[in-house]
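User: what does the whole thing look like in 3D?
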Amino acid sequence: MKQKPSSDNFSHLRWNPFLSLLWREIRRYLKVVFQTVMTPLVNSALYLLIFGVSLGSSIQLQSGIPYLAFLIPGLVMMACLNNAFQNASSSIVSGKFSGDVEDWKVVPLSPSQIVWALSFGGLIRGLMVAALTFLVGQVFMKVEIGEYLGIHSPMTLLFFLMIGGLAFAKIGLIAAFYAKTFDQMSAIGAFVITPLIFLGGVFFSLENLSEFWQNVSLYNPMLYFINGVRYAVLGQTDVPLVKSIVVSCLSLVAFHAAAYYSVKNGRFQRW
Amino acid sequence: MINSSHWVQLYSVQARLKFLNLHVYTVFMLVIQDLVKKYGDFTAVDHLSIALQPGEIFGLLGPNGAGKTSTIATIVSLEEPTSGSVKVFGFEVADSPKKVKSLLGYVPQEIVNHGYFSVEEILKFHSGYFGRLNNKKQIHFLLERLGLMPHKDKKVKHLSGGMKRRLLIAKALVHKPKLLLLDEPTAGVDIELRNSLWEFVRELRDSGVTILLTTHYLEEAEALCDRVGILHQGRLQKVGPTKELIQDLTFRRVQIKTNLSAEDLKKVKGEYSLMGSTLNFKIPSEESLGALLAKTGLPLEAILDISIQEGSLEEAFLNILGRA
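Assistant: Here's the predicted 3D structure for the full assembly of 595 residues, as structure tokens:
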């Protein structure tokens, strides 16, 4: 008569399934690195050229910072958020189409492991694109201003990029589990994510808005992510740093709870 | 004969022993007790109870919509049961899904296309999901055994249908499970591959793996399964050892070619149909040829040839469905 396996026999399930899924996520976008990392970089370069160089020369900020320097931290965070979102959502949506996601449900991956593996997978892609965007921004700075852009607080920069990247990967996961078709998925991107990011202060300072729109913007959690990064790079921000930290962390907790609920109760069956 | 209800009763004895802190469980790899799965008003699985013994191949048979795939989906946590209990190695699926999943292998009915990844990469990731990060030996064994080694660097979309199906089987076995669930494993594969897969499934059974198989091919079930359960409209109509089921539910057809004249043929006793000088008998499976010949009173010198056609699982299956 066989003995029931003891709980110790399952210790290999604590980290290994998570690490495997995370590595799969990273390998997935590295396989198509041109479209996952290089393409967003082209977008960032165009933004820098059109807004930072061309239009930016006629924009004067009250703080006296060159508009190009003001724009770079925003673009860095936008690249991080967008790519973290894209990675998690496209991984799930394509997996639902191919049947790949169904595998996750029948292997010993817990909902938490799925959420964290996809979150970190998205974050790492976000950080890669963000770093490259910053490097391209430095080239524009050197050419246009004649000097490189320094980083006021590297740890704060890393903190906000990580919180933002994780949060947006979780949003991507929630959206992909919610979506029933490819069209629904792109609608979520177009009608929710892009407006939130664009209105979160990537291209403008809160001080340039009327009081009404300033108050509206304060309800957009992206404002805090983006201003956190802006503070980390420039040492200046529209929103107090502590407030940015608190709102960003609370947003992450809320998005994690929603992502966990989506995985726990979502359908893994193929489309 | 021990049937599934006896196994379920035995399992509850185990549960009582467990309550008394006597750790003598896991006689059964899988115990499904009173399982109900509903989709809205439609009942896909209706109070199903079966128990799988270690090292057997159990076939779950039934027409389309009988509830076979829904049953497997609840075992692997793809679907939640409406009511009832599913236990693997004594672990309740609903309570310990992660542990249960780590103990079983699942081959789905539909092909999975893994996009960017090669065959070997897919197996590495899949092995990792089961906690085995360094599992090259088992992965290479499966690639060799299933004839996928020359294709290990190919993407799924470049594999033939048969190779894709073999990959599904390799994925299910990458962590050496003791319970394997095969949902229509040979659907759409050619005869040669089907035969080699049958051989492989038997090898697995002989190495101690318990196998639950659903199939439309009754020939396959007859060739492979030690026991079968027949589902119809979600209900288990009959369960038992395959051979016994065939014997209980089918007839032997005995054809005796004679050199008797029409006059002498009239003297042959028993129920038969006549075709020229050939007598066609339909006798219970357990009745021997000797008993038949003795009953008919046919002289041996009058018999030119005898052919016997045994009952098949298909006949038993149709018999059960006809009665359901």
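In plain terms: Chain A touches chain B at residues 1-5, 10, 12-13, 16-17, 19-21, 23-24, 27-28, 31-32, 94, 98-100, 102-110, 268-270 (CB under 8 Å). Chain A is about 75% helix and 0% strand.
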